[in-house]
Each structure stands twice: as structure tokens, then as C-alpha cells.
Design a protein that fits this description.
Layout lengths: L14 H4 L12 E2 L5 E2 L10 E3 L6 E5 L4 E4 L5 E3 L8 E10 L10 E2 L6 E9 L5 H4 L6 E10 L7 H4 L11 E4 L16 E6 L10 E6 L3 E3 L1 H8 L25 E2 L3
Parallel strand pairs: 1-8, 2-15, 10-13, 10-14
Antiparallel strand pairs: 3-6, 4-5, 4-11, 5-7, 6-7, 7-9, 9-10, 12-13, 12-15
Main location: secreted
Pfam families: Carb_anhydrase
Subcellular location: Secreted, Extracellular space, Extracellular matrix
Length: 258
Amino acid sequence: MAHWGYTETNGPTTWNKNFPIAEGSRQSPIDIVPSKAVFDSDLTASDSLRVDYTPEDEAHLQNNGHSVMCQITKTGYLTGGPLGSQQFRLEQFHLHWGADDNRGSEHTIDGKMFASELHLVHWNTKYDSFSDAVTKSDGLAVLGIMIKPGLTHLGFSSVSDNLSKMSKPGSKATVPVSLDPTRLLPNNISAYWTYEGSLTTPPLLESVQWIVFKEPVEFSHQQLTALRSLTDSDGHHMQDNYRPPVPTKGRKVRASFQ
């Protein structure tokens, strides 16, 4: 895949050269405007959003040059809500963040940007694998969690405490600590916005049902600083590794709450 990044020469404004789908009709992220979101009672009826994650015995961490990613090895599932009876398996989670606390999230809420955004990536188990599902229009479901500065997030400490082991791009670390993906979620997972979108990094495939939680979580200054101390594939501090919002192009954003 063509080299891409977040600089002026290889950043989001240039991605359409190698990935024409960047101009597509269901790209992500978007600016979510709560007043324009449509309340959908079906999202809260009998089939509410449910997660069933298994804690990891160890954290499989990787600096992929664009973000820090944690590969999931245990079986964990997401179902309900906009996904109905379909089961989506947790594959990995990663983050996007800014150079300071005023920017960093990919989705914005009424134009407001958060310091970071956590993505938990799941694939539809009706397909054989993640790599198969990612090419299908109903292949992926991603949970988006907004992060604001505040208290130390104990559920993320097993990652943030070990980021120094992965400062260089391509580096990996298997850390013998328990990691429970459930603890990364906000307390209230019944309030969210959902829409049909895409991966926010190349190849930008339009295969994602996005579920963006209304309630943010807090990371401490130290945790955010640890993320900003990583090195990216261009040899710079890994900062501002986010794609800005793109046009909604007539898509409907549904809300699970009024």
C-alpha cells in the first residue's frame, strides 16, 4: 500500500490520489450534529447494544507507525443496537490524538473536537475473517469513544504504562498484564449515535457501521503525553494522527436517545 501519513505531503488531503474512495459517499469521520440526528426507538427497544468481551491475559501492543494498536486474541463480541442479531468479533483497538488537548479526535460533536478518540474494531462473523469482512459493506462495526483530559483511566493503564517499549514504528511488545476491553467503554453505552461510514485510514474502505458514544471517558495528562511521545513512520513525534471530518453527503445519523 502506498506510503501515507499525517504530514502536509502525505496527509488526509492527499489520500485521494492513491485512494480515490477518499471522495466516496460514505466516508468517515463526520461532524455529528445532535440536533440533526434522528432518534430511532428501535435502537433502545428489545435489542439494545451489548458487549461480551473476554479479558486478555497479556496485552499485545504494536506501534504501526500511524497509531498504537492492541491486537485482541480472546473472543469478544458486539451485538444488538444497529447491528441487530448479527455478531461482530473484536479484532483490535487503537487511538487517534492531537499535539495538545484541544484536538485529536476524528469525529466531532457539534464541531467540538476532543483530545483523543479510541476505536474498538469488530468484524461481522458471517464472514470468515477480518480481512474478508473489511471489504464488505456490512463487514465492520467500530465503537468510537471520545477522550477528554482528566483523571487517570485505570482500564487503559496497562497500555499507557508500556508505551515506552514501543516508541519506534514497527515495534511490538507483549506485556504480561491483564487487559479487559470492557473497562475501556464509558459507563453509559446505551446513548450513542450511529451511521454508515468507512475506515478513517487508508485504504478507507466503506465497510463500517459506526457507533459513537455520547459519553466521553477521561485520560490523565500523563497518559495523553505518553501517546504523544511515540515516533511515527515519518520519524516525527506521533501527534495529530487524525483525519478531519468529511462531508456527510446526505447520510442519516441515528441517535439511541432523545
